[in-house]
Amino acid sequence: MDNIQAKADFLKNDYVKLLSDINPDTKGVWGKMNVHQMIEHMSYSFRQANGKDTYTLITPEENVPKMQAFLMSEKPFRENTPNVLIGDNTIPVVHSDIKDSLKELQNEINHFFEVYKKEGKTLTNPFFGSLDYTLQVQLLHKHAWHHLRQFGVEAN
C-alpha cells in the first residue's frame, strides 16, 4: 500500500473539490450513474465506512483474505464492477441541488475521520469484511478514483 496519510489527506482535502469541478452534465465513460448520483453514492460509501450505515458481510468468509489482498494492492476497481447492494438500477438522488450533495459528502468524510480517531477501531464492510483505518482509507481512496475516472478525471 502506498502512503495512507497522503490518501487520507486527498480524501479530506481534495476529493470533494475535484468532484465539484466535474460538469454535472458529463456522461460517464461507463456505468449508469450520472455525476449527481455518483456523488450521493459516495456519501453512502462513507456512511458505511464511518458506521452510520451498518451491513453484515455478504462475501463468503473464505474469500475475505483475497478481497482484502486486493484492497491492499494498487490495482483499481474494474469498470462496471457490479454492486449487488445497488443492483442493476441507479438510486434516485436525495438532494435536488448537487451542492447540497457535495456538502453532505464532505460531512460524511469528516465524520469518517472523527470515528477513526479511536485507535483499533474496525467496522464491517459487506464486501471486504472487518476493516481498520488503513484498509478503510485504502478502499475509499480506490473507490473515489474509480468514480473520478468514470467521469474523465485522471490522476496527476
Account of the 3D structure:
By secondary structure, the chain is mainly α. The protein has one domain. Helix content is 49%, strand content 4%. The chain contains six helices and two strands. The protein has a two-stranded antiparallel ribbon.
Mean pLDDT: 92
**How far from one another are the termini?**
18 Å
Alpha-beta classification? mainly alpha
Q: How many discrete structural domains? A: 1
Any idea what the radius of gyration is?
15 Å
Q: Main β-sheet, in a few words?
A: 2 strands, antiparallel
Number of helices: 6
Strand content: under 5%
- Report the principal-axis shape: globular
Number of strands: 2
The strands making up the biggest β-sheet line up spatially as 1-2
As a percent range, the share of helical residues equals: 40-55%
Order of helical and strand elements: HHHHHEEH
Question: Short summary of the structure?
Answer:
The chain has 156 residues and is mainly alpha-helical. The protein is 49% helix and 4% strand.
Layout: helices, strands, pairs:
Blueprint: H1 4-13, H2 15-20, H3 35-50, H4 64-72, H5 98-115, E1 123-125, E2 129-131, H6 133-150
Antiparallel strand pairs: 1-2
Features:
156 residues; 2 strands; 49% helix
